[in-house]
Amino acid sequence: MLILNAARDVFIEKGLDGARMQEIANRANINKALLHYYFTSKENLFDEIFSEAFSQFSPQLKSELLNLTSAQEFIRLFIKLYIGMLLKRPYLPIFVLNELQRNPVRIESLLRQSGVEPEMIVEMIRLEMDQGTMIQMDPREVIINIMSLCIFPFASRPMMQRVFWQNNTEAFDAFLAKRVDSVYGFVSRALFVEKK
Amino acid sequence: MLILNAARDVFIEKGLDGARMQEIANRANINKALLHYYFTSKENLFDEIFSEAFSQFSPQLKSELLNLTSAQEFIRLFIKLYIGMLLKRPYLPIFVLNELQRNPVRIESLLRQSGVEPEMIVEMIRLEMDQGTMIQMDPREVIINIMSLCIFPFASRPMMQRVFWQNNTEAFDAFLAKRVDSVYGFVSRALFVEKK
DNA sequence: GTCTATAAAAGGATAGAC
DNA sequence: GTCTATCCTTTTATAGAC
């Protein structure tokens, strides 16, 4: 829908507080009154946009991932899929993380409806550790470390691209794309006892 | 200064757009007019707060760090100092990263005055790679991976604490504190060919 | 320096014609 | 459904007394 696209663009660019209903209306080529006719309030419109953004940001356990048996293969494919998603939606991390920090109450309902279920992955990692093929550590830390390596480069792009790539956008895009492979290499050296 | 403390609290909590001059004045126990008397405009006050926040967020190369010769010892101490700093200022990452993304123009002047000089660290890492004690990879990626592991858990706290620690604040604090050591372990397994 | 009062503008939201 | 016009509150910023 055209209005939702305009709203998404503006909210992601400016945040909830910085966004203006007028600007959303302008970009959608309608006027403010019609915007309120459809969505009643700014908060309401934002909630629609944010819950969509949050569900995209939350790792999706697609069937391709669930069919894998070893944590090693799971991690490899997860990194590939998740960074691949972020390459298409590079502004998601800051938007979602920022709004969650400003208003943590939102999380409750969002988590309930998006059905994030970390127990299965934690169990898969624990199994691999028991088999001795993976370093012993808190499985939750394994997950957070992997997500850190996937997400942070997108969230810190304005700073990192400027400091390390002389603000060259193409070069930084290439760096991000290569991470689909290099993050797995980094993680597997840190985690797996035997290399295949 | 009392006013600056109040301003810092409100800006970090609400962001530039969400902050209200009235609230800053209230928390400082003065009134709005006096706030404008001292700082002229909200933008101006924000700039003072943000440049201070940015310089704290930017890794400081203190003498303790510069005296170290091996990248291994440098990385160990860097992680300890940087996570230690974040434990005292856990809201810095989201605040700085978010405002940088909303207004990337700010970076230029801030970087110039804060004198961030990554070349030396890049060279130190390169040297270690040439000696064969460190895996061959882009030194900039080494730095970004380490910073990812240090910073992201703070930025994603509202989500991660809720999902993996049943929103138990003390438990998550303990997890963060332990990372001073565990991040180094993770990184060194991923980077160093020989373990000491 | 510090206050009260107020200007001036912005922005969310609604009324009502078509 | 869509528009113009308008209301009303919020918010930044300033004027001017003390």
List the helices and strands and how they pair.
The structure is a homodimer of 196-residue chains.
Chain A: H1 2-18, H2 21-27, H3 32-39, H4 42-57, H5 63-66, H6 71-88, H7 92-102, H8 105-114, H9 119-130, H10 139-155, H11 157-164, H12 169-191
Chain A binds a DNA duplex (18 and 18 nucleotides) through helix 3.
Please supply descriptive tags for the structure shown above.
homodimer; 196 residues; mainly alpha; 12 helices; globular; DNA-binding
Notes on the structure:
The structure is a homodimer of 196-residue chains. Chain A is mainly α. Chain A is 77% helix and 0% strand. The first copy, chain A, contains twelve helices and no strands. The first copy, chain A, has helices at residues 2-18, 21-27, 32-39, 42-57, 63-66, 71-88, 92-102, 105-114, 119-130, 139-155, 157-164, 169-191. In chain A, helix 1 (2-18) packs across helix 4 (42-57), helix 6 runs parallel beside helix 10 and helix 10 runs antiparallel to helix 12. The termini of chain A are far apart. In chain A, 35% of the residues are buried. At the A-B interface, helix 1, helix 7, helix 8, helix 10 and helix 11 of A face helix 1, helix 7, helix 8, helix 10 and helix 11 of B.
Largest interface: A-B, 52 and 51 residues
What is the CA-CA span between the terminal residues of chain A? 47 Å
Helicity of chain A, as a percent range? over 70%
Q: Taking Cα atoms only, what radius of gyration of chain A do you get, to the nearest Å?
A: 20 Å
Oligomeric category: homodimer
Count of extended strands of chain A: 0
Judged by helices, strands and strand pairing, the structural class of chain A is mainly alpha
Following the backbone from N to C, one meets helices and strands of chain A in this order, namely HHHHHHHHHHHH
Question: How would you characterize the largest beta sheet of chain A?
Answer: none
Percentage beta strand of chain A: under 5%
Shape verdict of chain A: globular
Mean pLDDT of chain A: 95
Number of helices of chain A: 12
Q: Stretches of chain A where pLDDT falls below 50 for ≥5 residues?
A: none
